[in-house]
Amino acid sequence: MLLYPLIRPLAFALDAERAHRLTIQALKLMRQHRPPDFPESLKTTVAGLEFPNPVGLAAGFDKDSEVPEQMLTLGFGFVEVGTVTPKPQEGNPKPRLFRLAKDRAVINRMGFNNQGQPAAYARLMEDMHLPGIIGVNIGTNKDSADRIADYVTGVKAMARVAKYLTINISSPNTPGLRQLQDEGSLRALLSAVQEAREPNGPPIFLKVAPDLGEGEPDQIVRVAIKHGIDAIIVANTTVSRPLLKSKYRDEAGGLSGAPLKQLAVKALRGFRSASGGELPLIGVGGITTADDAWERIRAGASLVQLYTAMVYEGPGIAARIARGLARRLDKEGMASIAEAVGTG
Ligand SMILES: Cc1cc2nc3c(=O)[nH]c(=O)nc-3n(C[C@H](O)[C@H](O)[C@H](O)COP(=O)(O)O)c2cc1C
Hints:
By secondary structure, the chain is of the alpha/beta class. The chain is built from twelve helices and 13 strands. An eight-stranded parallel β-barrel has the order 3-4-7-8-9-10-12-13, surrounded by four helices. A three-stranded antiparallel β-sheet has the order 5-6-11, with no helix packed on it. It has a two-stranded antiparallel ribbon with strand order 1-2.
């Protein structure tokens, strides 16, 4: 991982999507080791799952579940694969992924390109023996006539191979998807999901957008609790455009990375005050350092996830942040992450 500063200029000389594909291919060749050991203080239990550390890989990096084991080996405390849709689909025309290096950000309008749930299921079956936590993020096909039916299909299709499932209703790149966050639609969706899940099935998380209006977190939390959702992931990419310097700043799609941080923290605080700690929260968006992760935990997140910072800082980032969090706990005289959640 010390090599990353050397590799990065080569990767950045390539088109972003090509660099991503090559990264996945290179990871496939990586020798499998046991994941690193982390201090006891980082162990944390959320929704009945025991995480070795609270720093996860966010959805979208390993859409087709090609390298979850490698990402666990690199030190991620958990890996979320997907988004996978019932049928394979191409996604949007290329180019659809842009690095905004000056802003330490990415804009993407991938549009759920993926090989479909059956392909991911077959790969995940082979990973069933792994002790690590691999969650599966599910979505709907672009041409679906019944979006709710697609989520029901996803829950039924992927439950057996997922340690947790994420209902993703927050991608800005599937037209109309985010409308499922509206109260009536959300109620219909989550009651269908509740009916589809097996009593002994995995916990189900809900992933929301950071671009919500006043009062929306309250509505979402109320409906989520009523329908047995186990945690909320806050948040996906933003369609807003804070001040950006890079030439790709006006590309359409979802913005992630450093410029998303403030908005993601604000959204997380909104969900924490709406839930009062009754529902676990997972903080995502612009997390680059242990300080960022710590701020999210203090704001109410039981776990965190990241994606974009790995593009800029390299794959060792998860282990670095995790160890930084352990030092932070020591310094504050706290014995566990759970003790720090929501204290700020
Ligand atoms: C290229 C790219 C693809 C993504 N694809 C997905 C996806 O398929 N499903 C999903 O729920 N989130 C997806 N995301 C959003 C991330 O999971 C995360 O919520 C967001 O990027 C904010 O975190 P970050 O600033 O650490 O990247 C994607 C993000 C990027 C940059």
